[in-house]
């Protein structure tokens, strides 16, 4: 982090976490629109490019869902060096989420607990935001849409169908988020029978949309880290019999077992204490689905080393959020530069070659206790 960034971060940390987040979005929006945002090409290192699910990612470091919930700053995030940006979670109707305060920084642990509850402006506002992107930005950057369900929805699955239909023309890829701990009942969709129904209905709507347009954005399923081996087998079986193109492993955890200082705030824990759990789940899932299914690895990536290890454990691509809160906007650039240097000093020449080289070691570890 340079001096200016450090000053800015220290000032933001004096504010409550949600106010700081609002300011960060506002200043990214302003500095991007006025041309003041310093850019770092996200294509600087050709050896970091990854081709999966029909898309060419200029580098493997993406910004995870939750930072840009309303699609206000995807191009600013790409400009500071992220290889792809995920907007959302977006629900059909706007909703305010849980009462504040609902984001808590655990500075000593480099972690966050959040119980936002899908606060977002709903499909139509996010569609307008994305439609206002410059044409050259749209053709250059990979922007995924993470879709979810409204808390008071009578049928969660219908909300996902609506999301796919509404964003079909705008999304480079979709993430079906069934793993937020902050919408009661949502994670039950990961259970065998419900997941079968969800994926069946998604397959049908997809067939219909592919037939009517020339687009076919890939669909990824985002899962929780709080699953046991049996759950993981159930999910991989369901994936195999569906048209899902990949997985995002994983969302925040409800477990507090990795915290050195206990914290009983309800919500999802992210950041450094999530790294071990999420990487074990990733490797186990990689073993179950085989080498070809794309997996985006998320959870506790905040350094070159943690990014490297996540790739070794089986991630085809990476996403981070909490690491950026603590390390600043330059984190994507720093990790890309570091990955490039580490590749040059290794026996691997591309990210794809590195992916999955230490799956067995990670997968052999026991899932941490809840
Ligand atoms: C404040 C906050 C809000 C989040 N909101 C969402 C969300 O809306 N949808 C989602 O799929 N994940 C959301 N996440 C989870 C992240 O996308 C990511 O999966 C998780 O934080 C693990 O990555 P990290 O340790 O790098 O933060 C959120 C995370 C944080 C910290």
TL;DR of this structure?
With 370 residues, the protein is α/β, with parallel strands linked by helices.
Gyration radius from CA atoms, angstroms: 19 Å
**Structural class determined from secondary elements:** alpha/beta
Supply the number of helical segments: 14
Characterize the biggest β-sheet. 8 strands, parallel, barrel
Reading side by side through the largest sheet, how are the strands ordered? 3-4-7-8-9-10-12-13
| Strand residue percentage | 5-15%
Bound molecules: flavin mononucleotide
CATH topology: TIM Barrel
Summed up, the domain count is: 1
Question: Termini, distance in Å?
Answer: 34 Å
What would CATH call the class?
Answer: Alpha Beta
Residue share in helices?
A: 40-55%
CATH architectural label: Alpha-Beta Barrel
The average pLDDT score comes to 93
| Assembly status | single chain
Q: How many E strands? A: 13
What string gives the helices and strands in order?
HHEEEHEEEHHEHEHEHEEHEHEHHHH
């Amino acid at each position: 982090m340079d001096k200016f960034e450090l000053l800015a971060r220290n000032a933001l940390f004096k504010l409550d976490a949600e106010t700081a987040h609002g300011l960060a979005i506002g200043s990214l929006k302003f500095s991007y629109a006025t041309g003041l945002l310093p850019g770092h090409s996200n294509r600087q290192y050709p050896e970091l490019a990854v081709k999966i699910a029909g898309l060419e990612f200029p580098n493997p470091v993406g910004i995870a869902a939750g930072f840009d919930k309303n699609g206000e700053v995807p191009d600013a995030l790409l400009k500071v060096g992220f290889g792809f940006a995920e907007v959302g979670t977006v629900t059909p109707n706007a909703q305010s989420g849980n009462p504040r305060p609902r984001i808590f920084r655990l500075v000593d642990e480099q972690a966050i607990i959040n119980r936002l509850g899908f606060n977002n402006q709903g499909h139509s506002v996010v569609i307008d935001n994305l439609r206002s992107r410059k044409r050259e930005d749209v053709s250059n950057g990979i922007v995924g849409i993470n879709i979810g369900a409204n808390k008071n929805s009578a049928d969660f699955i219908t909300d996902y169908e609506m999301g796919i239909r509404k964003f079909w023309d705008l999304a480079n890829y979709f993430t079906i988020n069934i793993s937020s701990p902050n919408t009661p009942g949502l994670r039950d969709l990961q259970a065998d029978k419900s997941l079968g129904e969800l994926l069946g209905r998604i397959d049908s709507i997809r067939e219909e949309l592919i037939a009517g347009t020339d687009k076919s954005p890939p669909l990824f399923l985002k899962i929780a880290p709080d699953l046991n081996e049996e759950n993981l087998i159930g999910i991989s079986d369901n994936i195999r019999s569906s048209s899902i193109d990949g997985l995002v492993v994983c969302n925040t955890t409800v477990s507090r077992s990795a915290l050195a200082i206990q914290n009983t705030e309800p919500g999802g824990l992210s950041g450094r204490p999530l790294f071990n759990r999420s990487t074990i789940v990733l490797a186990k899932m990689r073993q179950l689905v085989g080498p070809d299914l794309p997996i985006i690895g998320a959870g506790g990536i905040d350094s070159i080393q943690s990014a490297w290890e996540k790739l070794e454990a089986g991630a085809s691509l990476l996403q981070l959020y909490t690491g950026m809160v603590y390390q600043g906007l330059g984190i994507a650039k720093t990790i890309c530069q570091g990955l490039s240097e580490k590749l040059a000093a290794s026996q691997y020449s591309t990210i794809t070659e590195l992916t999955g080289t230490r799956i067995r070691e990670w997968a052999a570890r026991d899932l941490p206790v809840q």
